[in-house]
Write a structure and sequence with these properties.
Elements lengths: L4 E4 L5 H10 L3 E5 L10 H9 L6 E6 L4 H11 L3 E4 L5 H4 L6 E7 L5 H7 L5 E6 L26 E2 L8 H8 L3 E4 L4 E3 L2 E2 L1 H16 L1
Parallel strand pairs: 1-2, 1-8, 2-3, 3-4, 4-5, 5-6, 6-7, 7-8
Antiparallel strand pairs: 9-10
């Protein structure tokens, strides 16, 4: 099995970004969605990104944002990758001349094969838990058996991951990557160094099996 990649999302502070990178994060996520407790301004994100070492992918998370806001954020941050967590269409996602991933909230009845074809232009699908009225960051997991086996090696798995369950998630699903935010926090938007370290230890343990 190929080693599972890790994205730490909801970065709001430079010290948290450095903690994640030192622990082994492949990617960092910045939330540009006002209602989120992890929302960050483009100017703050730009300062953090400017201090990062090379080979760390930076990702901007949006939820049904107007195109001008996305373009302005790209211009200020020079972000690497876009992540859309709302009801965005493929045509909307494709207009920004940046690679993107599309988040889907998984619930019974969602046809992931159809969505994969619909968003054929995305770099990957990110699968998160469904909670009415909440576009992401719920802290809840979903039934991983709903993911078709032929898709599992391609997806980014999110939703309710913690140091306690990530090894089981990797062993059961074998995703391309895992994405965590709240599971390594000591407060919303503030990461916990011990939880981050334990999370990466568990990912490494699962990768060896």
């Amino acid at each position: 099995m190929m080693a599972v990649r890790v994205k730490i999302c909801g970065i709001t502070r430079l010290e948290d970004a450095k903690l994640a990178v030192c622990a082994g994060a492949d990617a960092l996520g910045f939330v540009f969605y006002g209602p989120s407790p992890r929302n960050v301004s483009a100017s703050v994100a730009a300062e953090i990104i400017a201090s990062l070492p090379p080979f760390v992918t930076t990702t901007a998370l949006f939820v049904n944002a107007c195109a001008d806001f996305v373009l302005d954020t790209i211009g200020q941050t020079q972000i690497d990758l876009l992540q859309f967590h709302g009801d965005e269409s493929p045509e909307y996602c494709e207009q920004f001349a940046r690679p993107y991933i599309k988040a889907l909230r998984v619930k019974p009845g969602l046809n992931l094969e159809v969505e994969k074809q619909r968003f054929a232009s995305c770099r990957a699908l990110l699968l998160d838990a469904y909670k009415p009225g909440v576009p992401g960051g719920t802290g809840e997991s979903f039934d991983w058996e709903l993911i078709p086996r032929e898709m599992r090696s391609e997806i980014i798995l999110a939703g309710g991951l913690t140091p306690e369950n990530v090894a089981a998630a990797i062993q059961q699903v074998s995703p391309f990557a895992v994405d965590i935010s709240g599971g390594v926090e000591r407060a919303k938007g503030v990461k916990d160094a011990d939880k981050i370290q334990r999370f990466f230890e568990e990912v490494a343990r699962a990768n060896k099996n």
